[in-house]
Amino acid sequence: MGYYITVEQNVNIYVEDIDPGYGKPILFLHGWPANHKMFEYQFNQLPRMGYRCIGIDHRGFGKSDRPWKGYSYNRLADDIRIVIDTLKLENVTLAGHSMGGAIAIRYMARHAGHKVTKLALLAAAAPVFTRRPDYPYGLTKEAVNKLIEGTYTDRPKMLDDFGDIFFARYLTESFKDWFHGLGLEASGHATAMCAISLRDEDLRQDLAMINVPTGIFHGKQDKVCPFVLAELLHAGIKGSELIPFKYSGHGLFYCELEKFNRELIRFIG
After folding, report:
1. Given the residues 98, 187, 197, 248, the one annotated as active site
2. Which of 24, 79, 86, 208 could be cross-linked to 7 through a Cys-Cys bond (beta carbons 3.0 to 4.6 Å apart)?
């Protein structure tokens, strides 16, 4: 079922809760610039295994409200805390893709992993998404600035171009159109503001504060968050497990769909 949770005055977050009535809760955090529907091919399968699948739309995306501000990782992580407390969730697996993975890391540090017992980082945009003088990994800030500029001048074209590097497998035109549509459902302003957060935020200090079993799921062909980011996360999060996907790009949840679902179930247990 779907419902709205108020996270601050005049800001309501949409939550899709697929609950078979028993089993472990998995809270999915979507990446930029999509929404919870990107996990359709997980939501089709995992509830059959008894898992409660909960997908949220971050503020500004999907069916959630579109406030003018509140797109820092701190605020987005605070939204997650309110959702977890409102739903009275316990023993949660927090599963974040790309920007959602970055928000999940900030949640673990800022909220001391409140109610989370396992962390699944899916092609996470972390520990830092863009290059720095002391960090020669990831995209350049100029590349992200082009995404922001494209958001404000021709968002459909920007989404088309971004979609072209997202997956590393054959896609039907119908699937491309569907995925493109997820990005168009977002607020253009929220899309740009979250791109700024992706460009500027730094999660390196957060990693040492993660104290739950962590699975790092990452495609070897990822052109958005290069595989070296997964290796840095693995080195920085004690006791973490690196789970590589040889034939996947950024969209590993679809590139190697069956392996992805199988490995996620194995990791969660």
Report:
1. 98
2. 79
